[in-house]
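Hi Y.,

Following your request, here is the sequence exactly as I used it, all 135 residues.
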Amino acid sequence: MRTEPQDDAAPIDLRERDARERLARLVTQLFERWGLSTAEQAALLGLSPDNRSTLARYRKGEPLADSRDLLDRAGHLLGIHKSLRILFPHDRDLAYRWMTTPNRRLAARPVDVAVRRGFEGLLALRRYLDFERGT
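Below is the corresponding structure, written out as tokens. Let me know if you'd prefer a different format.
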């Protein structure tokens, strides 16, 4: 049975190991639901494309590293997920396919924009979705 990443309103202290463990689970579940390759997952987290071992540790429950860049990337990924859930409330499958579906306005698949442009690509996707939501 597949679980879905959940959005919880309670703030969490990312300095605490258990909070970063929970965040790692959410992000790896999200990657699975989005159907991303290992190389795409690594790129979105700012890791080397060959860094399969770190991704495997995160999937097994290891906490995300206490790195500002990594934690910011995870936050933007969850923000993208939240926006997609708001934009497509009645079509969960579309919300999860969006990252890997070619987008005419972006002239690429959204995941490719984020991979190619790195952190700035994640920000661009988040801003784009915020605009689409009217926020």
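The chain is about 60% helix and 0% strand.

Thanks again,
Q.
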